[in-house]
Structure formats: structure tokens, C-alpha cells
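subagent[fold] <- orchestrator: predict structure for attached chain, return C-alpha cells only, no commentary.
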Amino acid sequence: MLRPLLFESIGQTLEMVLITLVVGGFLGLILGVVLYGTRPGNLFENAVLYRILDVIVNIIRPIPFIIFLAAMQPLTIKVVGTSIGTVAAIFPMIIMCTVATSRLVEQNLVPVDPGVIEAARSMGASKPTIVRTVLIPEALAPLILAYAFLFIGVLDMSAMAGYIGGGGLGNFAIAYGYQKFDQTVTWTAVIIMIVLVQVVQGIANSIARHLLKR
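subagent[fold] -> orchestrator:
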């Protein structure tokens, strides 16, 4: 009887996770590059802008997502027109994902050899060209692993989204497993989420190994 609901929940989880990762991951990549680039001594050095962005990221990132969902409710209603449902869950998920991604990107760009960047600058490459053809390719393997780690965080957020009617496996496990004392339902949702994580992590590890061998 619950099988159709299970498949629907899997679809809702994948929808939330994929949209969040694509949009939040892309915006976070841009923000992370800006954070790295505006650090003292880097390509776009700007101490004021870096400090402002750094403070914003440090304020948002530590907030537990369940509290962030509640705090974002007024803005969510203004932007998407409702605070309940899958779409209402995706909006705050994208914001949190963007912030988390930006810090991961910044941290993985910092170890890039400055000599490689200076060599590109000495050859007359523009700053955007250096970012696109030198900086990101040099850090691509660790960035892929970082995005795999991010997938786990976004999957966790999608589970919490069940508290605002966002649907997904988290809501399925709580509504039909925990609240009805059905451990089979709860563990079915848990196992599916574990499988999703293992598949994504395995793909990311394989791609990263391939890039490191080149």
C-alpha cells in the first residue's frame, strides 16, 4: 500500500536534491571563486568585499537547517508564495547550499600553487581566463570530492524539509515509519538514502582518481 508513496517520496527527494545542487552548487562556485579571489594577495584582492562576504557566510553557515527553515519562512512566502511544500523547501535549501558550497570552493582553491597562476598572468592571460583555464582545472579533483560531500549535506536538508511538508524520504520515514511505529518503513527510507550516498560518492571518487592520474 505504501509502495506508490515510497516512489513518490524518492522522486521528491531527487527533485529537491538535484535542483538545489545545480542552482546552489553553481552560485556557490561563483561565490567561492569571489571569496578566494578577493583574499589579500589574490587575483581580485579587495579586503572590504572579502570581509563582508566572509562575515555573511560565517553567519549563515552554522545555523542548523531546521532553524534556518523557520527563520526563512517570511522571505520564502514572498519569493515562492508559500511556506509549505517541495518548492518552499527548495528555496532555503538553495541559499544554504550556496553558502556551504562557497566555503568548500574557497578552501579547495587556496592550496592551488600560486606559481601556476603567476605564470599565466605573465603570459598575459586575463583574470577571468585564469580562473576558467587555470584555477578551477587545477583544483578540479578536490572540488569534485567536495561536491560529493555536499550531496550528503543536501540530502540531509531534504530530509528535514519534511517538517514543512516538503515531502521526500525524510517525511516518508517520519509520517509512515516513526509516527506509526513501523521500523520497516523507517529503515527502508534509511537504506535508500545510504544507497544514494554510496553511488554518488563512488562516482565522485572514480572521477577524482581519473583526474589525478592525468
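orchestrator: received. Logging for downstream: The longest helix spans residues 3-37. The mean pLDDT is 87.
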